[in-house]
Design goal:
Elements (H helix, E strand, L loop, with lengths): L2 E2 L4 H27 L5 H6 L26 E3 L6 E4 L1 H10 L2 H28 L6 E2 L6 E2 L11 E2 L21 E3 L9 E3 L1
Antiparallel strand pairs: 1-4, 2-3, 5-6, 7-8
Length: 192
């Protein structure tokens, strides 16, 4: 039987679940924003913003994009490059593919991936394994005399329950308060 090296299993479980949920939410939002809309950020990036110009824009336009023609052409109006040109989609890409927006989507995706990796690392503490686990020392083990043979020792963290020998026994004795003789009538109590 292995126990967690530091902290408690419950804390590692909470950390694992929190990192997993936050990572999935962040990654889901990034993917939804990246692939939603017509044209989506994916379409704009894949088709060079429908204007034969890749990258993001620092400012939008004030045009009503729906009034522009929505026809695809293989000729780029301002260059000799080959690519898909569509005036309406180019106008929408210029408004949608803002650098702040595109970089925010990439940041959300990276944060989601990092949180998922962190959840994977925290899971080693939630189920003690790898470098998060260690073997318990004798002071941390209490053997259950009623357990079937070959059953591993139950690990407890109660400081008053310890076993001095390797023989299966119940807890040595329960903790009882003991009045310190030097404290007189102050009623100070010490745990044994």
């Amino acid at each position: 039987m292995r126990i967690v090296r530091c902290g408690t299993i419950r804390c590692w479980q909470i950390g694992t679940i929190a990192a997993l949920v936050c990572g999935l939410v962040s990654l889901t939002i990034a993917l939804c924003v990246y692939f939603s809309g017509d044209p989506s950020l994916w379409d704009c990036a894949d088709n060079q913003n429908y204007f034969c110009d890749s990258g993001c824009f620092s400012g939008g336009n004030d045009l009503d994009c729906d009034t522009l023609p929505n026809t695809d052409s293989d000729a780029c109006p301002n260059s000799d490059d080959s690519g898909t040109y569509n005036a309406q989609k180019a106008c929408k890409c210029e408004n949608k593919n803002q650098c702040d927006h595109s970089q925010g989507v990439v940041a959300a995706a990276l944060i989601g991936i990092l949180l998922l990796a962190l959840a994977g690392a925290f899971s080693c503490g939630a189920v003690p394994c790898c470098c998060f686990a260690r073997k318990p020392n004798r002071a941390e083990m209490v053997y259950d005399g009623n357990a079937p043979p070959g059953h591993p020792a139950e690990v407890v963290s109660h400081p008053c329950q310890m076993v001095a020998t390797g023989t299966p026994v119940q807890a040595a004795r329960p903790c009882e308060p003991e009045v310190l003789p030097s404290m007189g009538d102050s009623g100070a109590v010490k745990q044994v």
